[in-house]
Amino acid sequence: MGWAPMKTFFLRTFKGRMILYYCTIFIIFIGLLGGVTYQLFMNVMTNQILQYTEKIIEEKRSSIDSYFNQVVNLVQISAGSQVLRDAIKQQDNQDIISKLYYQRQVSDYFTNILRFNSNIHDFLIINEKGYIYAQSGATVSNAYNFFDQPWFQKITSNYFYVYFLGVHENNYYILENNNEGNVVSAIAPIYDINSVSSDRKVYLLCNMNVKGIESISNETLLEKTGYIAILDQNNNPIYKTTDAQFSLDSELGRTNYFKQESGNFTVGNGLKKYLIVYKTLKTTNWKVVAYIPYSEMYAHTDAIRYIVPISILVVIALVVLASILIAARINKPLMRLTSKMYLIEGGHTDVQLFDDSTEEIEKLTRRIDSMIDKIKTLTEENFSYILQNKESELKILLSQINPHFLNNTLQSIKAMAVIGKTGEISRMVTLIGNMLRYAINSFQDVVTIQDEIDHITNYLKIQNYRYPEKFKYDIVISDELRRSSTPKLILQPVVENAILHAFQQLQEGRIELNFDAVSQGIRITIFDNGRGMTSVELENVSEKLSKFDPDEEYTGGVGLRNVHQRIRNKYGYPYGITLSSEINIGTSVTILIPRLGDA
């Protein structure tokens, strides 16, 4: 089925509209319901994942805070150790043996600590000038000044407070293989616990094993590819993950997403869209961050994502089927009614449309049956009226040949016979015969203009025989208009009226007939140079044109009214006769008819 037939079916048929409206309403409703249901399910699932992730993050924060608290305790104990204080006091001692002794004591102290604390990579003691004084692991360059490094933080507050330094380079070892990239550290001043202040600001730098922090973070998996990371105070990742994850960590480091101590937000788009959940560590003020890919969150909804559209399609199919069945059931009485209407259209007016299948159809068919009965009655009355009208019209047509004209013509023939003008008698008899044959031929109501001209020419010739030198006539018409159609016998009453009333006082009159094509049809102008009419007479004649009585005795005025009424009844307004006249100038009768082509 093409688009045009489909459009016609759905927009022009009752059944099609019912199916279209039902389906449209239910499809919109089901679509909205499915969309809302799916969205609610997604919101519930997202909230559950969010709550679960926040719970995991809280557990991880506790574990990582515990880890950093151990580091804090260890650094505080070490920073207050008598061994480290004694060694610092001897750093200016010129006695090499004594100095080496204390350095050995520091080395043994650090060794014992590292033996039982695998989370610590090494310890460094930095003197008041920023250079290395002692270390527990690989050898640090003596020329490396820690105070000149942007990541190093000098501490001026309480000596028991431990500061954590974010990700920074460890490029201070002499051997390159010990420079393992970025590290994180804890730093605290070495103070004498028995002294309120110290003239020397010596620092204990504790480098932590990043892998230990990483292992704590990644003990729990989030979905298949979700993960947990720790960001320092500059939002830089403490340890490097995969390339894609590290790129995301770097993006978070360049933005200001973490405005509160905890929260969640979304970053990325498409397949790289992530739900980010974070909390702030109490020990370091760093962030524990969970990254959950939305693609894996959506994976939980794959089943419902397929079930919802399939369910919608199934429901739509059922709605369409139900709409078709309901529409067919409702449309069935209308189809029966249509079939009966076709029978009535074919002429079977005795068919009864009554159908009581539903109350509405019963009322409708009762009214249509009543209307058909009235139409039959009106048709019969109209047919009777048409017959009567045809009889009246025939009577009028026959009356167009004025009895006085026939009588006067026969008297003229008789006079010619007395004086022996046989040739003229023959011509007049022929002319009168042609006129009678034309007038009484009731099979033709519409003729060509040429036929009408021939008839009026016969009439004018007869009148010229009766009244020699009384008037002259002239007919102007194009060959094209001669073949056009016109109602029969519309010229003779007008010309006859001019001869009877216009030329009584004239020795020689003139009649002009002009046929012109105009925008509304054909205009026929019949002009006589008779005595004309006053304005009052013209108004009276114009008024009488609209009045018509077929039983009225024939006169010239009746003839004009007959022509006007016939044309107006046949073609409607503005067709018919209009008059114009001036006293002692003449009268013009204009007949306007439509141009209908050849008769």
Structure write-up:
This protein is α+β, with helices and mostly antiparallel strands and 599 residues long. Helix content is 52%, strand content 17%. It contains 16 helices and 16 strands. It has helices spanning 3-12, 14-79, 82-89, 96-116, 210-217, 243-253, 294-299, 302-345, 359-399, 403-419, 422-440, 449-466, 479-482, 492-501, 535-544, 556-571; strands at residues 120-126, 132-135, 163-169, 182-189, 203-208, 227-231, 262-267, 274-280, 287-293, 446-448, 471-476, 485-487, 509-518, 521-528, 576-582, 586-593. The strands form 4 sheets. The chain has a 5-stranded antiparallel sheet. A 5-stranded mixed sheet has the order 11-13-14-16-15. The chain has a 4-stranded antiparallel sheet with strand order 6-9-8-7. β15 (576-582) and β16 (586-593) form a beta hairpin. α1 (3-12) crosses α2 (14-79), α3 (82-89) runs antiparallel to α4 and α11 (422-440) packs antiparallel against α12 (449-466). It is rod-shaped, with a radius of gyration of 61 Å.
